[in-house]
Request: fold
Amino acid sequence: MSREARWNALLELVGRNGRVEVEDAAATLDVSAATIRRDLDQLAEQQLLTRTRGGAVAHGVGYELALRYKTGRHAPEKQAIGRAVSELVAVGEVVGLTGGTTLTEVARSLAVRSDVVGDISAPGGQPALTVVTNALNIANELVIRPQIKIVVTGGVARPQSYELTGPLASGVLGEITLDVAVLGVNAIDTERGAYVHHEGEASINRLLAQQAQRVVVAADSSKIGKRAFARVCDLGQVDFLVTDKGITPEAAARFAEAGVTVVTV
Reply:
């Protein structure tokens, strides 16, 4: 198991249980206790958790939103999707992230990439990544990472998704450009495109897509072929669909015919 995978797993354990013990984590991940201690020390240095004797606990408010936000539905698929999406992002790029549980996993995967964690900023102060997001929980998790520059839109927060919407958010996004926008959606199919449940979120997601050179939709297979209320964009704006292996071969072929590169995990 790679270091990135172990870190993701350890953060998931802390996020789910509020704490992790070295011996339990070593048995769960099938690695040595010394490896787990070293991993926890390194995560503590980055303020992602707090070391305790024999383990670690959630770091202050760093997990407060994430714990309340966490959902168990399709969790393994979302974590795998998050890792796959992070691999589509290059160091130095400007990344737009919407909200949602899958996008939270994308943010976590970006944060523990070895080329991001180990990046030493140039004398000019250029970050390893710049993340633009309207999701308060994602900003909360990433702001403690010195290698990542966080830009948060203004707007009115929706308690259901922690996303900022409205004209204040639109005003910020209208003034910037993105290398890649990663969109979380509630539904996507080849006829109607990408949709979410709330019209305010759809508007911000649409603007993120318009400002980006390439667009990635991150959605587990339960979202494919479904309907939702508010349209984000059609498939002509989508470059990649990252999903799990639950997608049918027929659906994958239809997306490919529409010009979308399908990545399954």
Confidence is low (pLDDT under 50) at residues 61-70. The first strand starts at residue 19 and ends at 21.
